[in-house]
Write a structure and sequence with these properties.
The protein is an alpha/beta fold. The chain folds into 2 domains: 2-63 and 220-249, no CATH class; 75-209, Rossmann fold (3-Layer(aba) Sandwich). It has helices at 2-12, 15-28, 32-49, 52-62, 101-111, 134-144, 161-175, 187-199, 220-224, 228-249; strands at residues 75-81, 85-88, 93-96, 115-121, 152-155, 181-186, 204-209. The strands form 2 sheets. It has a 5-stranded parallel sheet, with helices on both faces. It is elongated and about 70 Å long. The model has no long low-confidence stretch (mean pLDDT 93).
């Protein structure tokens, strides 16, 4: 039930959908005063949520900082969170998505000797298409990239971050692999992930990747020009902020 409710909540967390609702209300209302107020709210909301500078600063403050390793720093297991593969159902083919830097960094860390094993955790994030398991696809890809089969661990039942943590703990405990574990996920997702994993009883060290915002100087014109990409960033940011809040309220973080 929590999984389904979180999917529904995602729709109402999108500022673009808020704008759409305001525009529809303004279009259908017959009251002239109310119509004018709704249109003003719609324009003001558009100018705020389409501003790249505002959401860029918020994301920079939320993201986890880049990890710097000590000379001989090494971990028994790196936990790779899924969420970077999409599936074409007709061909049963997986495709890497925007967050696939997680996959790249996991292999890089393995090749550099920073982690000895890779645990890929994640099943299907779809409500209906549960037969396509991301961990199964990634496991095959890791093997093709030269990771030894004995060094690949996987669990394919998780549907969200909370289940990632619970199922990973069960697997790691059963294999008696020592902590701390290197947690590999997107920088914007790290704060929520690490708190959930800690609550589940796993000691982790953050290795953020797939940085959505980079701290470069912002040109004045780019900072004031509306852009559709700002809406996409708001969706990502609000999902993390509200997601962490909901996990805290339900005792999962």
């Amino acid at each position: 039930m929590f999984f389904i409710l979180s999917k529904i909540l995602n729709f109402f967390l999108s500022p673009f959908n808020w704008l759409l609702i305001l525009a529809l209300l303004a279009f259908f209302t017959k009251n002239a005063v109310r119509k004018k107020r709704l249109l003003i709210m719609c324009v003001c909301s558009f100018l705020f949520f389409s501003n790249h500078y505002i959401i860029h600063r918020l994301m920079l403050n939320w993201q986890a900082p880049q990890k710097t390793f000590a000379v001989n720093e090494q971990y028994e297991t790196g936990i790779l969170l899924a969420g970077f593969v999409g599936f074409e159902y007709n061909k049963k083919q997986g495709y890497y998505g925007a967050a696939s830097d997680r996959f790249i960094q996991a292999i890089r860390l393995y090749k550099l000797g920073r982690i000895k094993k890779i645990l890929i955790t994640g099943g299907s994030g779809s409500i209906w298409k549960q037969q396509y398991k991301e961990a199964d696809f990634v496991k095959e890809q890791l093997h093709e990239m030269g990771v030894a089969p004995a060094d690949i661990l996987s669990e394919n039942q998780s549907r969200n971050t909370y289940e990632n943590a619970i199922n990973s703990k069960q697997l790691l405990d059963s294999l008696q692999l020592k902590a701390p574990y290197l947690l590999i996920t997107s920088a914007i997702h790290m704060k929520r992930s690490q708190q959930v994993f800690t609550k589940a009883g796993l000691q982790t060290v953050a290795y953020p990747c797939n940085f959505n915002a980079i701290n470069n100087p912002q040109l004045f014109w780019n900072s004031i020009t509306p852009t559709h990409k700002a809406f996409e960033s708001w969706d990502i940011y609000l999902k993390e902020v509200v997601g962490l809040l909901m996990y805290k309220l339900t005792g999962k973080a």
